[in-house]
Each structure stands twice: as structure tokens, then as C-alpha cells.
Design goal:
By secondary structure, this protein is an alpha/beta fold. Helix content is 35%, strand content 24%. It is built from 9 helices and 14 strands. It has a 6-stranded mixed beta sheet, with helices on one face. A 6-stranded mixed beta sheet has the order 7-8-9-10-13-14. Strand 8 (104-110) and strand 9 form a beta hairpin. Helix 4 (148-159) crosses helix 9 (241-254). The longest helix is centred in the last third of the chain and has 15 residues, at 189-203. Bound molecules: zinc ion. Zinc ion binds at residues 56, 58, 61, 114, 133. Zinc ion binds next to loops.
Length: 255
């Protein structure tokens, strides 16, 4: 049976996500920005939380774990890297591991760069990618702990997933990302189309997520650092994709 996915706002601009297996009734929260909205979403659906799948150690992704664990006694699945402080972890996972949420299967991809412990969860049967703060719509996470080449490699891992997979990311940053991306690729027709769509969604108070990975590959400049036109637009013709990516990220930091 197909998974049911719900998304809702948490904190200032985080997304909360629930993924539910109708067969077994198991329900996972992807990260736990804060307990309140997650509990409300569970109660709205009549679901019980069985698992929290943590992507990385930042406070706005783990802040709700303790309260949820106390209320539901759910399992906490977290990245293998034990140097990062994540509360109440039951299971550690690394690249290639499979996490079961009832009968749903999530494949773990290590996607370091934003943090060193960052992992993403791929539900292949449901064509869903939970990429947290590695890949945003028309953007990517800030590189806090890793290096630019490391983050670029992580983005390549995600870019290798099929076009019809949906991206569920950690934050509603799309409008700001579009504004920046247009400074690099003002004539990219797919980016211009996405810009229009995002403006309409935001005006209607709707989330810009999920998006199709195929659309991101065409419009997200951070996934396009190996396009000669993108290198040329930042005056790095002939440079490596990782260097071009680093320049894009630096410019975005200052934007
Ligand atoms: Zn983060």
C-alpha cells in the first residue's frame, strides 16, 4: 500500500513531515523541529508516532524529540556519526542502511556538508526524498561543517535519483532561493517558470514543497554547477564543478 505523507509548518520556516503506512499503521516523523505541531498533525489524522527519522543534529531538527519520545515511546533513528549530540537515540544508521517504518522502506544516503552527520532518507517505492538541509527547492543548505567539494558530492548523490522522485526539504526557503538563482541564470526558462509558480503559491499561503527532482535538476542552480553556462556566469569558465559550486554558495551567503 502506498505511503501517506503530510507536511505542515514548524517553528519559523521549518517543515514537519509525517509518513504513514496504512497497512501496519506505523508513522514516522522526519526530524522533530518542535513537538506541538507534530502532535497536532498526528491527532488530526488519528495516527500514532512509531519512529522519528533524524537527518542531522541541529536544534531546529531535534528540538521536539524528548517530548515526542516521552508521549509515544517511539524509536529514534539517527545518523551514525556519534560526535553530534542528538537526544535519546535508539538506532544509528549509515550509508546504504535500510530503515523500516512498518512495511515502508527508507534507504539512507550520507549527505554531509551542511553538517558532517547529515543523512537523507529515500523511500524508493513511494518516490520520496527527504533531504532536510542538504537540498532545498532552488537552493541548498549552508556549508557549516563540511567543505564545498564534500557538499557538491552530496548534491550529486541526490541528483542521481530519478526525475519523478519528489523532494521534501527542511525549510520553506524557496522564494529567497529563486531570487538568488535568477541573478545567476536570469534566462533559464525552467527557473523563470518555477519563479512564477512559487510567487503564486506563496501569495495563496501555500507551501512550495514538494517539488519534482526532475524540475530541480533543470532549475536549481546549485545542482547545475557543472553546466558550462553556470560556470561562465560566475566568471569561472573551465573551473571544476566543486569550485563553481563553492562560488555559488559564497555568493548566496552574501545575498
Ligand atoms: Zn540544519
Amino acid at each position: 500500500m502506498a505511503a501517506e505523507i503530510r507536511l505542515f509548518p514548524c517553528l519559523t520556516d521549518n517543515f514537519g513531515y509525517l509518513i504513514h503506512d496504512p497497512g501496519s499503521k506505523a508513522t514516522a516523523s522526519i526530524d522533530a523541529p518542535e513537538a506541538g505541531p507534530i502532535i497536532k498533525a498526528l491527532e488530526r489524522e488519528g495516527w500514532t508516532l512509531t519512529d522519528i527519522l533524524v537527518t542531522h543534529h541541529h536544534g531546529d531538527h531535534v528540538g521536539g524529540i524528548a517530548e515526542l519520545k516521552q508521549k509515544y515511546n517511539c524509536r529514534v533513528v539517527a545518523p551514525h556519526d556519534k560526535t553530534a549530540k542528538i537526544p535519546l537515540v535508539d538506532v544509528r544508521v549509515k550509508q546504504g542502511d535500510i530503515v523500516k517504518v512498518g512495511n515502508l522502506l527508507a534507504r539512507v544516503l550520507e549527505t554531509p556538508g551542511h553538517t558532517l552527520d547529515h543523512i537523507s532518507y529515500v523511500f524508493d517505492d513511494d518516490k520520496a526524498l527527504f533531504a532536510a538541509d542538504t537540498l532545498f527547492s532552488i537552493g541548498c543548505g549552508r556549508v557549516f561543517e563540511g567543505s564545498y567539494p564534500m557538499m557538491w558530492d552530496s548534491l550529486l548523490k541526490l541528483r542521481a535519483l530519478p526525475d519523478d522522485f519528489r523532494l521534501y526539504c527542511g525549510h520553506e526557503y524557496t522564494a529567497a532561493n529563486v531570487k538568488f538563482a535568477l541573478t545567476i541564470e536570469p534566462n533559464n526558462p525552467d527557473l523563470k517558470a518555477r519563479a512564477e509558480e512559487v510567487a503564486q503559491l506563496r501569495a495563496a499561503g501555500k507551501p512550495t514543497i514538494p517539488t519534482l527532482l526532475g524540475d530541480e535538476k533543470k532549475a536549481n542552480v546549485f545542482l547545475r554547477a557543472d553546466e558550462p553556462a553556470v560556470a561562465a556566469s560566475v566568471h569561472l569558465k573551465g573551473a571544476s564543478a566543486a569550485e563553481v559550486f563553492g562560488e555559488l554558495r559564497e555568493r548566496k551567503n552574501k545575498s
